[in-house]
Write a structure and sequence with these properties.
single chain, 8-stranded mixed sheet, 21 helices, about 45% helix, about 475 residues, alpha+beta, two-stranded antiparallel sheet
C-alpha cells in the first residue's frame, strides 16, 4: 500500500444485517475496514492457481498486489468465483517485465493480460484521480482525456490503493484481498452492502454515469446476476441519463450484449433494460416495434421472450448457445416487416426481396451493436432455413437436413410454431421432428406424402435444339 493503513476491526461480525448498522464500524477511503482471516470466508483454495501465481510474483517483485472486485465479492456471497482480477501498484510496463506470458491491451484503460493457456488473469494498475495528475499527464491525450459530456475517453492516471478504491464503480467491488496477510480490505462498506444485497455506486451517481454510461448497464446486470436491489440513489438518474448510451461504441455494446443476454439472465435483464429506457440502444428497430401502439407485430414480444427463456435454460444447464440465435429472434419480425414493405413497392423475386430486406435491417442494427461477421453469417443461415424447411419435395428435405446450421434453423422453426400457432407451422414443425427420428425408407415415404402447392414445381428446362449446320458453298 502507498501508506500504512491502521487496522480497523469491525465492532460486529460482517454478516450482521442492516438493522444493526448503528453498531457496525464504517469504512472510509483513508481508513478501511480490515477483516482478518478468521472474519471472512475468502480462501486461497477457492481461487485460481494462476491468479495466486500472479499475486505471488508481483509481491516477490516488490509490488503490492490484491485480488479485487468480483472474485472477492462472489466468495463473500457464497458463489463460485469465475473472474480473478488483480490490482497492483506496478505499472503495465513493470508487469510486462515480470511476466513473459503478458500482453498489454487497451488504450482507454491500459491493462495487462497474463495468459495461462485458455485462462487470462487481468491485472490493472491502481487508478488515480485526474485532479491529482501532473500537468504533463493532463495534457497527454494518451494518458487522460474526457469528452464534453464528462465521459472518460482515456483513463491511465495511476495512483494509490485508496484512490483506486474510490475510482471503482460499486461498493461491492471495492474489496481487496491480500495473499500476503490473508486479509480483506473494505474501503466503501462493500461487505455490509454484500450482506444487505444492495448495489450502490461510489461517489455522485450522475458524475459516475457521465464518466462511463455503461455503469448503468452494470448496475442492472449485477442486480439480476447477484439477486440484489439497486439503491434508490444509484437508480434515480438512470432514465434521465439514458441518452448517454448513444455515445457508447457499437463494438463495446456487443460485449455488453453478451454479458446481458448470453449469461443466463436474459429475461430479467431485458425487463430491466426496458423499464429504464435502455433497451433501445441495443435494438432500436425492436424497441420501436415493441412501443408501437398499432401492434403491427403482435408476435414480437412473445417470440423474443420465449427465445430468451430457452437461451437462459440452455446456459443454466451448461448447454451450448450462439449469440446469433438470439439476434435472429430479435430481428425476425422487423425483417418480415421490411419484406412486406418491399413486396408492395417492387416486383422482385422472393429471394431478391429477402436479400433487399436483409441489406436494410442489418446495417441499421450494426450501427447499434457491431455484430461480428461470423455471427452475421449464422443469423442469415437461420433465416434462409425458414424457407428451406418449408420446401420438402424431392431431394430438398435431405439437403436441408445436411445443412450445417440445420439444428439452429429447426429450433427457430419450433419457436415460431409455438408462438404463431398456425396449422401450417405446427404441421411443418411436427413433420421435421418426425423426419429426424425415422428410418431412411420412412423418410422417403414422408417426402412422397408432402403436398406440393400448385406452381411450386420447377419446370424441366427444354433442351436447346442444335442449330442446323450451314450448307457449305
Amino acid at each position: 500500500m502507498s501508506k500504512t493503513i491502521a487496522e480497523t476491526t469491525p465492532t460486529k461480525n460482517a454478516k450482521k444485517s442492516a438493522s444493526n448498522k448503528k453498531n457496525v464500524a464504517t469504512a472510509s477511503f483513508d481508513n478501511p475496514l480490515i477483516f482478518s482471516r478468521d472474519q471472512h470466508p475468502v480462501s486461497r483454495q477457492l481461487m485460481s492457481p494462476n491468479a495466486l501465481k500472479v499475486l505471488h510474483r508481483l509481491n516477490k517483485g516488490g509490488f503490492d498486489a490484491y485480488l479485487v472486485g468480483g472474485g472477492v465479492r462472489d466468495i463473500l456471497l457464497g458463489f463460485e468465483p469465475k473472474d480473478f482480477d488483480i490490482a497492483t501498484n506496478a505499472t503495465p510496463d513493470e508487469i510486462k517485465d515480470l511476466f513473459r506470458n503478458c500482453r498489454l491491451i487497451g488504450r482507454r484503460f491500459r491493462l495487462a493480460h497474463i495468459v495461462f493457456g485458455r485462462e487470462i488473469i487481468e491485472v490493472a494498475t491502481f487508478r488515480g484521480h485526474h485532479d491529482n495528475a501532473s500537468e504533463q499527464e493532463k495534457s497527454c491525450k494518451t494518458t487522460s482525456k474526457q469528452s464534453e459530456d464528462g465521459m472518460l475517453l482515456r483513463d491511465n492516471i495511476y495512483g494509490s490503493i485508496e484512490e483506486d478504491a474510490e475510482r471503482r464503480d460499486f461498493t461491492i467491488n471495492a474489496l481487496y484481498y491480500s495473499s500476503k496477510d490473508f486479509k480483506v480490505y473494505d474501503f466503501a462498506n462493500g461487505v455490509q452492502d454484500v450482506n444487505d444485497k444492495v448495489i450502490r455506486l461510489i461517489g455522485d451517481p450522475e458524475t459516475r454515469y457521465r464518466e462511463d454510461p455503461v455503469r448503468m448497464l452494470r448496475a442492472i446486470r449485477f442486480a439480476t446476476k447477484l439477486d440484489m436491489q439497486i439503491s434508490d440513489a444509484t437508480k434515480a438518474p438512470i432514465k434521465e441519463l439514458s441518452t448517454l448510451m448513444a455515445n457508447i461504441p457499437a463494438a463495446r455494446l456487443f460485449e455488453e450484449f453478451l454479458k446481458m443476454f448470453i449469461a443466463g439472465k436474459a429475461v430479467a435483464n431485458f425487463e430491466q433494460l426496458r423499464s429504464y429506457d435502455l433497451f433501445g440502444y441495443f435494438f432500436p428497430a425492436v424497441d420501436q416495434a415493441l412501443n408501437d401502439e398499432s401492434n403491427e407485430q403482435s408476435y414480437l414480444l412473445d417470440f423474443i421472450m420465449l427465445a430468451m427463456e430457452n437461451t437462459d435454460k440452455r446456459i443454466n444447464n451448461d448447454q451450448r448457445v450462439t449469440p446469433a440465435f438470439l439476434f435472429a429472434a430479435m430481428l425476425w419480425y422487423p425483417l418480415q416487416k421490411h419484406i412486406q414493405q418491399i413486396k408492395v413497392t417492387t416486383q422482385l423475386t422472393p429471394q431478391d426481396i429477402f436479400f433487399a430486406a436483409l441489406n436494410e435491417i442489418m446495417p441499421e442494427q450494426q450501427r447499434s451493436i457491431a455484430i461480428p461477421k461470423r455471427f452475421q453469417a449464422v443469423i442469415k443461415d437461420i433465416w434462409i432455413l425458414q424457407d428451406k424447411l418449408s420446401r420438402r419435395d424431392g431431394k430438398r428435405a435431405f439437403k436441408t437436413l445436411e445443412h450445417l446450421k440445420f439444428r439452429a434453423g429447426y429450433d427457430f422453426l419450433l419457436l415460431r410454431a409455438q408462438i404463431e400457432a398456425t396449422p401450417e407451422l405446427e404441421e411443418l414443425a411436427l413433420w421435421w421432428t418426425d423426419f429426424q427420428e425415422v428410418s431412411n425408407d420412412a423418410q422417403l415415404q414422408m417426402i412422397k406424402g408432402v403436398n406440393v402447392p400448385q406452381g411450386s414445381k420447377r419446370r424441366t428446362p427444354k433442351k436447346r435444339r442444335k442449330p442446323s449446320a450451314k450448307p457449305t458453298e
